[in-house]
Amino acid sequence: MDIAEVKSALLFEDLSPQALFSSLQVLSRYALEHGATDKVALDAIIRFRDLIDKGSIKDPAITDAIYSLCREAGLFPYLSKEEIDWRDRVAFEFFRGPAETSYVFHREQWHAFQYLKSGRSLILSAPTSFGKSILIEAYIAQRRPFCVVVVVPTIALLDQFRRRLSKAFFPTITLSLLETTSP
Fold it and tell me: What's the whole-model pTM score?
């Protein structure tokens, strides 16, 4: 069995405990060879984690192994605080956002946030669902900057972002947004 077969097997939610264990072995070896932050490994880890949420994984040993892979991959938002052991809880709390927020960052968000916290500017281009908005909110909560510039590609996203920030920080900050159009 290889990692492609593991990903295919994970599409079926009623895998036997033996099939789950075998798949987890392959994923663990793959993550060891390629790194737990490899895109293929991350995808498989998230699929395993989804099976826990759906109730398809009932074995506590397999659940613990999946939580350990989540921790190794830096997927701290995927850890459920109520279900994790003390090792995962330490990692979970380490990657928590500012006290004013309830965020738990994944590893890449945490690195970007630390960079911002140090007072340096950051230009970040990241895919959808990376959590860029969470980073901006956490930065505003932590540093209370005078000015934050956010560039978004559509007016709809601009309005969505404005509503999100207003809800999180009104009346402590005033938002002024400018609309620009390109010729």
Answer: 0.66
pLDDT value at residue 30: 92
| Residues 10, 110: Cα–Cα separation, whole Å | 29
The token duo for 2 is: 């290889």
- CA separation for the pair 64, 109 (Å, rounded): 24
Structure tokens that stand for 146 in this block: 């005078």
Cα-Cα-Cα-Cα dihedral sign, residues 16, 21, 24, 30: negative
CA distance 80 to 75: 11
Would you list the domain boundaries of the chain? 3-94, 107-169
Q: What is the pLDDT of residues 28-86, one digit of tens each?
A: 999 989 988 888 898 899 889 988 888 888 888 888 889 889 988 888 888 877 777 78
SS3 state of residue 104:
strand
Over residues 3-21, mean pLDDT: 79
3-state secondary structure of 13: coil
